[in-house]
Amino acid sequence: MRYLSTVAALVLAIGTASVVDAQVLGAVSAPTGDAQRTPPAIPREFRGAWVASVANIDWPSKPGLSSWQQQAELIALLDRARALRLNAVLLQVRPAGDALYASSLEPWSSYLTGVEGRAPEPYYDPLTFAVKEAHARGLELHAWFNPYRARHPTMQGPNARTHMANTHPQWVKSYGKYLWMDPGEPGVLAHSVKVVLDVVKRYDIDGIHVDDYFYPYPEADSNKLEVPFPDSGSFARYRGRGGKLELSDWRRNNVDLYVEQLYKGSKALKPWVKVGISPFGIWRPGYPASVQGFNSYEKLAGDSRKWLHEGWVDYFTPQLYWPIARPAQSYPVLLDWWIGENRKGRHIWPGHNSSRAGNGGPEWPLDELNNQLRLTRATTAKGQGATGDIFFSMKSLMPGASALADKLTAELYTDHALIPASPWLGSSRPAAPRGRVVRDASSNEQLLRIVPGARARWITVQVLRNGSWQQWVLPASYTQLVIGNAQAAPADAVVVTAIDRNGVASIATPVAPAPRVGASRSNGGVR
Fold first, then answer.
1. Based on the domain organization, do 383 and 436 belong to the same domain?
2. 199 and 61, same structural domain?
3. Which residue, 7, 11, 178, 510, could crosslink 22 as a Cys pair with Cβ 3.0–4.6 Å?
4. Do 62 and 39 share a structural domain?
């Protein structure tokens, strides 16, 4: 889309104020065709992308980069997310019992520094940096954890002495080319939950996210026969303590305990931090009847439908990585089934295989991804459906990766969207913002000065001029917005609204639109 030439700059009030081009930060033209004084509703849609650190898929691009190189790469990813009009990134911070943040519980990741246990040099905390930079761009930052993987075959060098493989080797099993924490060990459960809650406690994240690797995907031997996961010892100890469950049910119960404790523990610390899980897209073959394929209920011990039924998530992201027209795993068939299982009314934000879609092929024409998003939106139009989408992974949406991103912004993400509200996490309105329209003394531009008010995470600005509404979705750190150049007529209406972390909107506040000609700047010239 084209940005109106009247929008020249936005002010970012983080640390030292600076002028940022509005085209980068997403001014949106929203013509209505009438001059009604009630502004149009701003779209509500979760638009996220996974940023994977395992195997250096997305970030950092390789181990051992300097701190400034890592930061520059992450800023490029976040800038790209904003330019694509996404509103969230899911950053993998624990790929394999390690940490891409400062942790007293687990060692620094080798994907970050090239040596497990070695901190970035010069020192910085990547998660603190990521949260600050994401919020500066109006993006949510969700910390993404792998629950039980202890080592991936792409990792360099030995595990650090502080890694669980060395501190509690009895809890770690070799399986295929991987090391895996045994979910049946009570100490593994306690540690894995503690790791996530430590991040919830110490970082200003917006969500925690768990992927689909609970018990590992099955490995095969040289005869292509499935190799059992080596948890006979922990199972025998469970039975020895009087446990009655059979092996498969016991494994599922181990994972259920993790999910339940993670959700309840997080809510006890910070109720507003959203908890999300992205399970394998098929719960069990035959659900619904036409679906065939991998049985994650048995093979991964993931009773993902139960977690949704129990409300142990705030958002649920089944990985629906198949095309629309594949009968045994059809995207809309699976999506409708999961929506039908959403008894607690949690968010359904399906995961999309944008990496596969970007490579093309007979089942993945260029329109496939956008058509899947259209089907997502169609469920919302019917009532309580899916209200967003998440892409794997950010690499597939970067410049030059494919034409997917261009089609996405041209056809579907033509304007910015707000995160859908989560009323079960809190529904009280934040304080209404205040605004004032003035004329810049030197440029004669029309400036809206904003005081966000308590609990604001985003501010929406809507301006009516010549019968058309123009609107912005901004981080609450923005204190000033150019709403018209020197030649533009005064606005007919200006409305500002605050949005809190739960997505709840304040009362919309009209701002007197007539600027005071020749008004001087009140902030010493810093805009």
1. no
2. yes
3. 7
4. no
Contact assessment for residue 110 and residue 156, using Cβ atoms and an 8 Å cutoff: yes
Handedness of CA 267, 314, 86, 48 (dihedral sign): positive
Give the lowest-confidence range in 34-48, 64-78, 303-317: 34-48
What is the rounded CA–CA span in Å between residue 447 and residue 29? 17
Residue 522, in any domain of the structure: no
Full strand arrangement of the beta sheet holding 207-210: 347-348, 315-316, 274-277, 207-210, 140-145, 88-94, 46-51, 388-391, 351-352
Q: Lay out the sheet containing 149-151: strands in order across.
A: 149-151, 178-181, 172-175
Residue 388 and residue 459 in one domain: no
Side-chain half-sphere CA neighbours of 321 within 13 A: 17
Give the 3-state secondary structure of 417-482. Answer: CECCCCHHHCCCCCCCCEEEEEECCCCCCEEEEEECCCCCCEEEEEEEECCEEEEEEEECCEEEEE
pLDDT at site 4: 27
Q: Are 256 and 305 in contact (CB under 8 A)?
A: no
Looking at every residue in the chain, the average pLDDT score rounds to 90
Residue range of the domain that includes 104: 54-414
- Pairwise CA distance, residues 448 & 445, whole Å: 10
* CA angle, residues 115, 210, 377, in degrees to nearest 5: 130
Displacement of CA 488 from its chain's centroid (Å): 38
Q: Give dist(CA 302, CA 148) in Å, integer.
A: 13
Number of domains within the chain = 2
Same domain, 30 and 132: no
Q: What are phi and psi of 161, to 5 degrees?
A: -65, -20
> Which residue, 381, 414, 447, sits at the end of a domain?
414
Note if the bond before 60 is cis, omega within 30 degrees.
Answer: yes
φ, ψ of residue 295 in degrees (nearest 5): -100, 90
Q: Which of 383, 414, 445 is the last residue of a domain?
A: 414
Could you tell me if 92 and 22 lie in one domain? no
CA dist 356 and 319 (Å) reads: 13
* 369 lies in the same domain as 499: no
What pLDDT does residue 382 have? 72
Single-letter code of the amino acid located at 327 = P
CATH number of the domain residue 432 falls in: 2.60.40.10
More confident residue, 465 or 26: 465
For residue 363, give the CATH number of its domain: 3.20.20.80
Same domain, 229 and 313: yes
